[in-house]
Amino acid sequence: MPGTAEIQDLALRMAEEMERQHKSLRGMDIGLLAQNVVRTFPSVEDNNPMMDAVGPFYDTAGLQRWLATTRQNLGKRSSALQILACKTEDNHLLYPTWQFRRDGTVINGLTEVLTVLAQGTASPWTWALWLTSKIDDELEGMSPAEWLGDERTLAPVLTMAASDAAVWAA
Length: 170
Hints:
The protein is 52% helix and 5% strand. The chain contains 9 helices and 3 strands; from the N terminus they run H-H-H-E-H-H-E-E-H-H-H-H. It has helices at residues 4-20, 30-39, 49-54, 60-67, 71-79, 110-118, 124-132, 144-149, 155-169, and strands spanning 57-59, 86-87, 93-96.
């Protein structure tokens, strides 16, 4: 859990970013804003091991707002394997946050990797778990998602994805 200094540092960085984007909190009820943010956090009862391993997530409404797009566009991007959407048991779509850079673009190589993984299984949850699993030797202890997010070469991730997809398909 972050300490007070980390929260203050984050608040300062967010204030700087808002200033760069010419946004202001003037006239806003900060207490109400904080309550609304806290409401978006999952409750302890909502946690499960798969979500803990793969998340955190954006829900559809949150991702729509952030990317200024429609639900239909998110669906098209997900169907085209341009973004990863994981469906919950109650039919809600969740989008792992690690696939997005701070500017809303997707990490390099994600579409290519998802396309390869899809040849082995049609399970986005499996893809997400694979992408977030640490790999000691080939990726220097990083997960494929971290490796791609760090803008490293795509080749070793594609090689491992192809190998694992072949095993899943067998």
